[in-house]
Amino acid sequence: MNVMITGATSGIGQQLALAYAKAGDKVLACGRSQAKLATLTASQPNISGLCFDLLQYDSYPQPDPNQGPLDLLILNAGDCEYIDDALNFDAERFDKIININLISIGYALQAWLPLMAPGGRLVLISSSAQLLALPRAEAYGASKAGLSYLARVLAIDLAKHDIAVTLVHPGFVQTPLTDRNTFAMPMIISAESAAETIVRGIAKGKSEIRFPRLFVFMMRLLALLPFPLWRRLALRMV
């Protein structure tokens, strides 16, 4: 199987790349750091690398056509920054997060969906944060909510092309991104555990993968609350 993964030099993306390579699949790992890609490709002979910046929309590289069509395309790359002062809204930060987490996905789809084999699968890594309006998450939450909507529409529109779509909603996962957080992260799991759950879900053909189950269940229950009640609870978190 030919697998392409963005954001493959750290966190969930890296663990997914290693998992598929160890299973014997050919993995095309994408990232911005040539040094990190070199380390990753040296660790597994089944991994090759593509170094580029997803925000450079006009320079998305094409995989080697001799490798054959893509069977699995995992769009995992993303970033998280918070809006610390909503009154003095940081539009530049908002623009940055929306672009990497959502707009770049559109350019990736334009570049690589035509390379997918019939019967292939597109995987989009969103976040459980899209379920609730969370303090300071104007940029991150909005980008992930948009990504989840996009994935569900693609699941309808790509069916006629025999391309399946899997949407992933992780909770807190130990990665370089979450290492920057200064608040409590309940039920946080390792990137290895997250990758294992995603790989199992993809193998089962799941349309949505949510984890940890208890954390997501609690988030979905809170999302059922009337917004004024949730707003009062959220204000206590600030």
From TrEMBL:
PANTHER family referenced in this protein's UniProt entry, alphabetically: DEHYDROGENASE/REDUCTASE SDR FAMILY MEMBER 7B (PTHR44196), DEHYDROGENASE_REDUCTASE SDR FAMILY MEMBER 7B (PTHR44196:SF1)
SUPFAM superfamilies according to UniProt: NAD(P)-binding Rossmann-fold domains
Pfam families xrefs: adh_short
Name of the protein described by the UniProt record: SDR family NAD(P)-dependent oxidoreductase
Superkingdom of origin organism: Bacteria
Family under the similarity heading: Belongs to the short-chain dehydrogenases/reductases (SDR) family.
Taxon lineage: Bacteria, Pseudomonadati, Pseudomonadota, Gammaproteobacteria, Alteromonadales
Keywords for this protein: Oxidoreductase
Species, as recorded: Shewanella marisflavi
This protein's record includes keyword Transmembrane helix: no
